[in-house]
Amino acid sequence: MQKLEVLGANKLKGQINISGSKNASLPILAATLLSHKKVYLNNLPNVKDIETMINLLQSLGSKIKFNKKKLIIDNSKQNKKFASYNLVKTMRAGIIVLGPLLAKFGNAKVSLPGGCAIGSRPVDIHLKALSKLGVKYKIMQGYVHATAPKGLIGSKIHFPKISVGATENLIIAASLAKGTTILNNCAIEPEIKDLVNFLISIGCNISWVSKRSLKIIGVTEIKETTYSVMFDRIEAGTYLIAAAITEGNLKIRNVIPNIIKTEIDILRKIGAKISIKKNEIRIKGNKKIKNINIKTAPYPGFPTDLQAQIMALLCKASKKSVIKEDIFENRFMHVAELNRMGAQISTIGNKALIKGNTKFAAAELMATDLRASVSLVLAALSTKGKSVINRIYHLDRGYENIEKKLKMVGAKIRRVS
Questions:
Q1: Which of 49, 78, 92, 236 is deepest in the core (most CB within 10 A)?
Q2: How crowded is residue 246: how many other Cβ atoms within 10 Å of its Cβ?
Q3: H or E stretch covering 30
Q4: Cα 70 vs. chain centroid, distance in angstroms?
């Protein structure tokens, strides 16, 4: 099994180009199932979750090929409606093929999702919302068996709580439903807006009617399109934190700074010096890191996907900090590993109390999920000695060429078997 060796205490300096967004690419790839025409996608990241989604689409009958950095998807003969557990077990986004398959065929059998062990991710919000479009479903032996006997029919739907996955599934499904669908209390993450923009590019009729409400008029014709996926804001945030934790000086390129304004504001409060240009951010880490209290929240709040990374940074703050995790109930598994490196973090329910003034010590570490694993890399980068991070297959799910990008800015890091 592969692992990373990190020799820390180097200040990162140079430039990092941010890849395309994993979290935007996955629902866009699922949404291509609506089309019988060719779809050309640019800026997909080369990460394991994208490979898994491509394999899932191919298992459903999609013809897919790469032309340089462009992915070409041909669904003209796509006719399968079964999404196997073997392809969905490592990735929660697999459930998002349910919406387009129901919209296209009126029935589907899709495995319940897997992914990181960071808390329950119930699909009941997806299924109850789909039932309002005319879907009948049963869950048997780990699979959702769903049918729409009269096809999908537009409806007014209010999500009981903000859910990124359910919002994505319903937007895609409603795009081919008969009549008009109104979705209220939608998630408004930038990746969802990217999905909407993609769907509009293939001819779907979607408009925002208020901050968290969408109007979708079902269409019968889908167009061919070429579309470029947005940048990965979580990768960008991770490398911004890497600069702050190593007292580095990095230029982060291929970004839209306004999309990550919350993260930039928090890093400034912590003490980092940040300047912004049109598509890039320059960040200089400060030796003195200020404490801060943070809670994760749906966009535009602080993202849960950066909670582990910011925790590693706050371990080095001069005073106590508190992080409240309001999205997932089991997302503090990195705490034990950071404590093994010398941190003093305690958890009470959904709160982590970080004592600060940590001088991390190199250690052998175990990754437990995608974002936890990268928080251990960040901690290791900031301390003298050799740290070893095991189970880095988690990292490969969401970070493209992480050791290569870090090496280019001065990190001493290598992958070993």
A1: 236
A2: 24
A3: helix 22-31
A4: 21
Domains in the chain, number: 2
Please state, in angstroms and rounded to a whole number, the distance separating the CA atoms of residues 40 and 288.
Answer: 47
Cβ neighbours around 162 below 10 Å, total: 18
Please report which helix (H) or strand (E) contains residue 364, including its range: strand 364-366
| Same domain assignment for residues 211 and 291 | no
3-state secondary structure of 266: helix
Tell me the pTM: 0.96
Domain final position from 228, 244, 262:
228
In Å, what is the CA distance from 413 to each residue of 74, 250, 401? 39, 17, 12
Per-residue pLDDT reduced to its tens digit, 225-250: 999 999 999 999 999 999 999 999 99
End residue of a domain, out of 170, 195, 228: 228
Enumerate the active-site residues: 116
Beta-carbon-side half-sphere exposure of residue 15 (alpha carbons within 13 Å):
6
Residue range of the domain that includes 264: 3-19+231-416
What are the tokens at 71? 């992915």
44-91, pLDDT tens digit by residue?
999 999 999 999 999 999 999 988 779 999 999 999 999 999 888 778
404 Cβ neighbours under 8 A, 6+ residues apart:
none
Main-chain phi, psi angles of 179, to 5 degrees = 85, -155
The strand ranges marked E within 271-315 are 273-276, 280-284, 293-295
